[in-house]
Amino acid sequence: MYSPLEVTTRSLIPALKRLAVERLLSLGFSETQVAKMVGLSQSAISRYVANERGILASTLSKSDLNSMLESAVKGMVEGRLKTHEFLHEVDKIALYALSKGYVCTVCVSHNPQIKLPCTICLSDTPAVVKRELV
Questions:
Q1: pTM of the model
Q2: DSSP for the chain?
Q3: Is the CB of residue 19 less than 8 Å from the CB of residue 60?
Q4: Closest among 54, 26, 56 to 40, alpha carbons compared
């Protein structure tokens, strides 16, 4: 059994990174440049391009997630975000996705004993962002 955060780490974050990589490549950056920008190896970038990582990316059609990710990518391109700040933005987007229930079906696919509707992660703002103790 995987916790929702484990599912997010294994599935959603790589998918978000893949979308960012694809966007940066479409803007004309080389794989080597993109690797440096997002803090990955050039080999990892090649795996994203070859659809070997971040396969959940094709299912991320939520406009709010795409808008948030586009903003983070734009921040990197414009030099406003450093690599660690970009990665923090990706983490925040992932927590947001959890709070909106966007990861539920993926989580259930990893945890067949959980049945939908599951409301473990659903809230307006994740507790970790509010800095509350659960």
A1: 0.82
A2: ---HHHHIIIIIHHHHHHHHHHHHHHTT--HHHHHHHHT--HHHHHHHHTTSS-GGGGG---HHHHHHHHHHHHHHHTTSS-HHHHHHHHHHHHHHHHHHTTTHHHHHHH-TT--SS--SS-SSS-HHHHT---
A3: yes
A4: 54
Token pair, residue 90, equals 């990706």
Q: What's the token pair of residue 93? A: 């987007």
3 touches 121 (CB < 8 A) = no
Between 63-77 and 13-26, two packed helices, what is the crossing angle to 10 degrees? Answer: 60
Digit-coded pLDDT (tens) for 50-95: 876 666 665 666 788 889 999 999 999 999 999 999 999 999 999 9
Q: Tokens 């259930």 map to which residue? A: 108
Distance separating alpha carbons of residues 24 and 1, to the nearest angstrom: 35
